[in-house]
Amino acid sequence: MNNILEIIKKAENTHELTKEEIVILLKDDENRDELYRAADRVRKKYLGDEVHLRGLIEFSNICKRNCMYCGLRRDNKNLKRYRLKEDEIIELAKKAKSYGYQTVVLQSGEDDYYTVDKLKYIVREIKKFDIAITLSLGEKTYEEYKAYKEAGADRYLIRIETTDKKLYEDLDPGMSHENRKECLYNLGKLGYEVGSGCLVGLPNQTMESLADDILFFKEINADMLGVGPFIPNEDTPLGKEKTGDFHLSLKVTAIMRLLMVDINIPATTAMESLEPEGRSKALMAGANVVMPNVTEGEYRKLYALYPGKICVNDTPGHCRKCITLKINKIGRYVSDTKGFRKGNDREVV
Ligand code: SAH
Ligand code: SF4
After folding, report:
1. What is the rounded average pLDDT of the residues 125-132?
2. Which residues form a coiled coil (predicted)?
3. Angle at Cα 275 formed by Cα 272 and Cα 277, nearest 5°?
4. What is 3-334's CATH topology?
5. Can you give the pLDDT at residue 345?
6. Stated pTM of the model
7. Is 270 in the pocket of ligand 2 (CB under 6 A)?
8. Nearest CA owner, ligand 2 atom 6
9. In whole angstroms, how large is the CA radius of gyration of the chain?
10. CA–CA dist 153, 15 (Å, integer)
11. Taking a C-beta distance cutoff of 8 angstroms, is the pair 183, 158 a contact?
């Protein structure tokens, strides 16, 4: 057996790899299908065939940050900005529940219009629909995270983007890598299910640095991990850079599953924006979650993190049916639970 197959076998059996071994897997393309199949077996063994859906509400594209890769960055004057009112967000969450979602993800740029009081109101009202809430609002203080948690928020997504401090601080001007890590730590301390993840294919990112990302996620015991290829946006300073590689993103996803058997891993929208059936391929390489869009009308298009985003002209009802078909087509089914991390045992039956 060649060395690479042995590393895959070790990962499948022990769920431990060294940084060097991860780098070897990331660099290899010959055996990548075997890597995906091993991750798929681990997913099936620990989590079965159910897929958790999270309805994504993109409620504001206004952002005070200036991340070099992101179309919502404050210096992008080429984007019509929008912000949904509190009651519009609550209404979208209610509709999400009616489509059968058990979780909504509220995501936005870092928009200070939404004060702690406004967010507490939104979270409290949405919790009345008996639905889990994931927030993805960027960096906030410990007290702010605490207030949202007390209002009923269950989970929080904040990608580290990259664990390479220099690369991070070059790409996220004015932001501190320590603070990003502190946010993850604070969220865990407050009892959130914590989601993180990274971008794959950033300019100057190395395989070694991606391996560090994976080991970092294992070390902090993240509950959810989303990985997306970097997709250059013309309206940003990185507009002329190379697009991230789909298969490299898939390899990162598969290795994450091999090393973290019971966490929730989404098949991300960015993956399908690059590759036809990209989300189905991710679901067959370790992923067990999909986050269909429930944002309505022109806002979908205006939430333009990167170009080529899928489903921008579709309705929430259409996306719900379409994703169910895709999931069934690969022999999987949509879960009817809230889909907390298995080991966390929070499910109320
Ligand atoms: N403002 C919040 C949430 C919205 S951004 C935050 O930054 O955490 C959500 C994610 O979009 C980011 O974490 C980033 O990983 C991703 N993203 C931004 N620009 C992207 C691009 N050009 N290609 C792929 N993903 C991108
Ligand atoms: Fe704002 Fe998030 Fe985009 Fe950075 S990645 S500019 S914080 S929306």
Report:
1. 98
2. 1-28
3. 65
4. TIM Barrel (3.20.20)
5. 60
6. 0.97
7. no
8. 73
9. 19
10. 31
11. yes
